Amino acid sequence: MLWAVAFLLGFLLACATSAEAHTKRKAASTAGLSIPNLSHGQLRVMATYKNAILDLANREPRPDAEARTLQNFVNLQFTYCLWGLVPGSLGNEDSPFNGCTHAYLAASKALLHRLERTSSNPSPVRDLAMRISVDMIREESALEICANGVEPFNTADIIMPEWSGVPFNPIVVLYSSIAFLVTAGLFAIYFVRRPRSVAG
Q1: How far is CA 42 from the centre of its chain?
Q2: Residue 19: in which H helix or E strand, if any?
């Protein structure tokens, strides 16, 4: 039921947040680490390997500061993006969660590149990088660029979901409504089945 809770949370936050909370993406900061953006095809491949990259990063006994920064950015962006649970976050360019999805997947690739240069055990890192490269070559749409795939990212800038657009996105509204109905149904079943105390 985690997905239902995530959708319901996203819907409630969207209703509680004003339209001014997130507008168009601002120019990337220069205070942190710059992260190159990726095409749609590349992002789809990275979505498959993100966890494997983080697993390699977690195995590093003494990761350098840049690797730690990138890893923290991936984890933070993934959380803000409701852990990738919202349908259409990657494939739908109009999704309010498309921008933040771009951010954590692009950062995953940047983290992999950093591990290739600094890992204390480079062999599995190189093997993973090779598999990803092969998959990206096979991806027919690897060169497709969407509106959220042009500007680079920066670890100093957290990309928030466009909460103001959630109530107007049909996919998010549909799944949020389903989540609300499922949650309401579970509560109803619980209260109906709960044994009633008999007055003595």
Answers
A1: 15
A2: none
- The values of phi and psi at residue 46, to 5°, are -65, -30
Take residue 40 and report the two structure tokens written for it. 């749609």
CB atoms within 10 A of CB 122: 13
Phi (first) and psi of residue 151, to 5 degrees: -80, 145
**pLDDT value for 200:** 47
Q: Which residues of the chain register pLDDT less than 50?
A: 3, 11-24, 169, 171, 200
CA distances from 19 to 43, 161, 162, 165 (A): 28, 12, 9, 8
The confidence score (pLDDT) of residue 183 equals: 80
Contact by Cβ (8 Å): 145, 132: no
CA distances from 169 to 21, 138, 152, 162, 185 (A): 17, 31, 25, 10, 24
